[in-house]
Amino acid sequence: MPIHPRESDPAVPDPADPAPEGAVRPPRGDLPRSGPPTGPGPDTDEEPGPDAAGGPAPSEDEHTAELKELEDRWRRALADLDNLRKRHTRELERERTSERSRTAAAFLPVVDNLELALTHAGSDPGAIVEGVRAVRDQAVNVLELLGYPRHAETGVAFDPARHEVVGVVQDPDAPPGTVVEVLRPGYGDGERQLRPAAVTVAKRE
Predict the structure, then answer these.
(1) Are 28 and 13 in contact (CB under 8 A)?
(2) Can you tell me the distance from the alpha carbon of 17 to that of 10, in angstroms, rounded to the nearest whole number?
(3) Range of weakest confidence among 5-9, 111-115, 155-159, 191-195
(4) Pairing between β-strand 163-169 and β-strand 197-202 as defined by DSSP bridges
(5) Do the beta carbons of residue 156 and residue 190 sit within 8 Å?
(6) Among the four residues 54, 85, 128, 172, which has the most C-beta atoms within 10 Å?
(7) Residue 88 confidence class, pLDDT cut points 50, 70, 90
(8) Rounded to an integer, what distance in angstroms lies between the CA atom of residue 194 and that of residue 81?
């Protein structure tokens, strides 16, 4: 039986034939369809994950370890400060003890000379006065070496920083406001003053 070629239906266009001018070709299955992008891109609204911000966030254990380390450092600092305070207190007390010892040792010769004067007082009562005066001068010299000079001058102008007025007298031979008599010597100057001199001052007219 002879095979006749199939006549094409003029109503159905052949895909291989070019479309007539002005006609719209139907979409083919192998062409990409238009629509919104399905993958991530620069215009998507997806938020970056934790890895995009510079690595994973620190865990609670890491925070706890860091806090414990800071607490240990704080406690060590407190302990060091307490040890420094105790050491300073010990050194200060040691220095005070040493200074007291040096001062007492400076007065030992004065005590020895007083004992010698008392020992020889029975054999020569007149020599006791000279001996006591010599011991007094020695004690005054020791105080001066320690930084406390003696002040017992008369005829000088009254100085409230060095003198303490215990009386006012009428003396025609002394200028007003000058020291007439020293009743008790003073020792030291300024901030290193042990005591002011007790004096009487000439009365102003």
Answers:
(1) no
(2) 12
(3) 5-9
(4) parallel
(5) no
(6) 128
(7) very high
(8) 36
Portion of the chain with pLDDT greater than 90, in percent: 40
Distance CA 189, CA 195 (A): 9
Amino acid letter, residue 172 = P
Query: What pTM did the predictor assign?
Result: 0.53
Question: Whole-angstrom Cα distance, residue 193 to residue 147?
Answer: 9
